[in-house]
Here is the input.
Amino acid sequence: MPAAVSILPSPQLAVLNEAYRRAVARRRLRTVLVTVACCVALFVAAMGAEVNFTTFISKIGNFASYFDRILTLESGARVWTDVNEWFWGWKKWLSLLGETVLISYVGTLVGAVLAFGLNFLAAENTAPSVPLRFAVRRFMEFCRTVPDIVFALIFVIAFGLGPMAGVLAIAIHCVGALGKLYGEIVENIDMKPVEGIRSTGAGWVDCMRFAVLPQVVAGFASYTLLRFEINVRGASVMGFVGAGGIGQELVVAVRKFYYSDVSAILLMIIVTVFIIDIGTGWLRGRLFGKGTHA
Amino acid sequence: MSKQLPSANTDELRARYPHVFNRPMSSRATVPTILVAVLALFIFGLNELEFSPTRMWTGLRELGWITMMMVPPNPGSSLPAYLQAMGETLSIALLGTTLAALFALPVSLLAARNVIPSAWLRFPVRRFLDSIRGIDTLIWALVWINVVGLGPFAGVLAIAISDFGAFGKLFSEAIEAADKKQVEGIRASGGSALHEIRFGLMPQVLPVIAGQVLYFIESNTRSATIIGIVGAGGIGLQLAEQIRVLEWQKVSFLILMILVAVAAIDWISSRLRFAIIGRRAVA
Here is the structure.
C-alpha cells in the first residue's frame, strides 16, 4: 500500500511544505490576535463592572450559605421536615401565582391581537404602502427593545399600582416581539393563493383573510403559546416594581430576610413555570401534531 | 357573470365532497368553542385584575401627559454619569455572557445524549439547568446582591447564572445535532473519549456556539439595562431613579440611550456572526 503514495521530489515538496506552514502560521496568528482582543475587552469590562475577585472569593461562601439559610426554618430545622410551616402562606401565594399567570395570559392575548393587526402592515409581501410599513416596523422595534419592566415602571405611575400596569407592560412588549415573529411567518408564505384571490377582484382585507390567514394561523398560534410561556416568567418579576403578581411577595421576603419564605415562593414559581412549559408544549403538540410549524 | 355555480354542478360537487359540505358538528364546533373559552378567560382576567374603563381612561390621559413631558429628551447635567452607567451595563452583559458560556460548555456535554448515553446521568443535569432557567434574571440579581453586595458585580453574576441555564440547554442541543461520523472516525483511529470530544465534536459545534454567545450578548444588553432596577448596577438604576422622581426628560433620554446602545450592539454582533458563519462556509 505505501507504494501507492507517490513521493514528490524534495524541491517540490519544500515549496508545498512552506505554503502549508505559512497558511497554518497565518491562521494561528489570527487565533492569537482574536484571543488577545477578547481578553482585552473582558479586562476592560471587568474594570467597568467593578469585578473584585477578593470580594468574590471571600463572599462566595455566602452563596452556599444563603441557600443553606433559605432551606432552614426559623426553628433551625430543615424546611422539608415541616412542610406545613414552610408553606404557611400557600393560600395567599397560590392566589398571587394565579394572578401572575392571569397577567401573562391577558397581556399575551392583548399583545397578540394587536400584533396580529399590525404584522400584515409590516411584512414585506403584504404591506399596502412603504411609509406605513416603515412606521409600523419602527414602532414594533421600539416596543420590543424597551424592556417590559421599564414600561411597567412608567405604567405604575400612570395607571396606579396593581396588576393593570403589569398587563399593559407585557402587552406592549408582546406587540413588538410577536409582531416581528408573525411578520417573518407572513413573509415566508406562498404568494400564489394571494394572487388567486386578488384576480377575483378582492380587496386587501379579503386577500389577507382568505389567502394569507389560512397559511399562517398555525404558526401564529405556536409562537403565541411560546410567548405566553416567556411572559409567565416576566410576570413573576412585575411585582418588583409594584405591577402585581407574586414578585411583590418575593421581593419583600428577600429584602426582609424571611429565608424560608424565599425558598417556598421560588419553588412555587419554578413548579408553575414547569407546569406551564409542559402544558403549552403538550398543547402545541396536540394542535400541530405533524410538526409542520415548528 | 352570474355569481353562483350552476345548480347541477353544485349537486355534483356536494356528492363528491361530502366532508366539505356536511362537516360533522364536532369539527365545526371546535373553533368557536376555543374562541369562546379564550374570550371567557380573558374577561374573567380583566375582572380579576381590576381593569375598569375609568381607570384605563385616566391612565391613558396621564400617560399622554407623561409623553408630552418627555419631549425633548434632555440629560441635564448628568450626561457623564449616564455614559458611565451605560458602559457599566455593556460590561455586565459582556462579562456575564462570557462567564456563563465558559461554565456551560462542560456542563452541556453532560446533558447531551450522544456524549452521556445514560439517561440516569443526564436527567438530573437537565432538571438542574431547567430550574436555573425557571428563575428570572432579576430574581438572581436579588439573590446575588445578598451575597456580594449592591453594585454591578452582582449583576454580572446574575446574568452569568441565568444564562448558564440557557446556554447549557442550547449547547447540549447543538452537540446532539452534531454529525456522528466524525466522532466515529476519531474512535476508529484509536482516540480516547476526550479526543472524540475535542477533535470530533468541538470543531462542529464551536461556530454554532459562538453564534449563540454573540446573540446572547445582544439580548443580555437588554437584560443588563434592567437589573439596575433592583440595585445590581448599570443604567437601570439611573432609569428607575429618574422615573421615581418624575424627571421625564431624563427618562426619555435614558430610554433613547438604551435604544441606541442596543441597536449598536445588534449591528456589531450581526456583523461578527456573519463573519464566523462565512468563515465556516469557506473552510
About this structure: Residues 80-282 of chain B form a domain with the MetI-like fold fold (CATH 1.10.3720.10).
